[in-house]
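cron nightly-structures :: item 1 of 1
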Amino acid sequence: MKNLSVFVLFLFCLTFTLNGQVTTSGISGKVTAEGELLIGATVQAVHEPSGTTYGTVTNADGRYSLQGMRTGGPYTVEVSYVGFQKAVYKNITLQLGETYLLDVKLTESLSLDEVVVTASKAALFNSQKTGAAQNFNQSQIQATPSVSRSIFDVTKMNPLGVNTASGMSFAGSSNKYNSFQIDGITNNDVFGLSSSGTNGGQAGANPISLEAIEEIQVVIAPYDVRQGGFTGGGINAITKSGTNTFHGSAYWYYNNENFYGKTPGKDAKERKKL
């Protein structure tokens, strides 16, 4: 009994490491007025499809940070401060695992009218992007031709990806060294039973339906310490969540006997020799 107690105590003393991938986005920046940093300015972001609201206030440095936000959009961001006109930014779209940089300049309020600003796409190269990464949003996924309804039909559009007979290879690495994540949970073929390196590959099934995916991110050698545990490509997929709009999708497979060729030589006509 004593040995059993010591063994149980030993198990509790062990430490385990769990690698969790990024499944959300964020918005950060600073709020100024006439070159001065504003402390305590209110920042509110609304996810238009679902009505989800995220809010915070600027700190002593005039900076703010909204994290854990749903990917996609569009978002409407409102920034307000006493004595200044409210700034409204619309049509902001967030990408998986990235922080959208939004610096705000408020003007002194002379009337009760608000300023409406339409946001533009973030710069392609900025300090928030580290490592080779590519995101595929819902519009790109729906526009991708896919006979097998496979997620790899989307990821192969990455310049470093090659769809081989055995599976998806990134940057010349074997598909066995890839990491596949669904909502931050590892979904790899840990026993190595599948040639594709993903669960369901033994039966030719896909690890997840394209209809259930909201956004896909492919990362190669990321600098972010939150993403690791692989030397090939990291495929990070997040599933759809509810919105205030009713929508759905449907597809079907159709095979016809005329699509199949006849056995060579069985019904072929005799050809003349040259």
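cron nightly-structures :: done
DSSP finds three helices and 17 strands in the chain.
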